[in-house]
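Just scan my protein:

. . .
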Amino acid sequence: MKPSDQKIYLASKSPRRRELLRQIGIEFELLMLRDNPDRGGPEVSEVPHPGELPEVYVARIAREKAGFATKTMFWRKLPVRPVLAADTTVSIDSRILGKPADASEAFDMLKSLSGRKHQVWTSVAVRHNDETWQATQRSEVVFADLTDEMIRTYCSTPEPYDKAGGYAIQGQAARFIREIAGSYSGIVGLPLFETTQLLRQAGFLL
């Protein structure tokens, strides 16, 4: 059944995902998960399992986030609504590139992407009425050749440090990108076509 107030819960702290949902007219409330180790650690660990493929990893994380957020909705006695969670990761040569911890790690990530094609995976999970609908979208991005100076200049900005792969396609890193194939919104963090299909399957959209 549809929620009476026509809203979903978004289990994500990403401002990009909020903007993308607003772009397609989806009303939502945030249902935040804990990610601060000082308060007991994250509720969903984003550490890859040994040998885990990027597409398997990103799907697992999105599904776990949606599941835990749904439990949180019931624990807090919140109005019952569909819960949407997503996760994005970057891979090259089947190696997962998460969010860089510091400038050195960001530099190394961007250096590895320079002049090459890599993959951006975003998985979206919608959970409602004890069912989960999920889709994983893959896009390919080709970087131009980057000089060390270009990379260091970019790493001196705040932009790389909360982004998988160490860059934001919607930010200054757009000048590095020679070609994309797939979903631009998926690279940003929420593939809108797939998200719309999932919400329709969940009965939220006609």
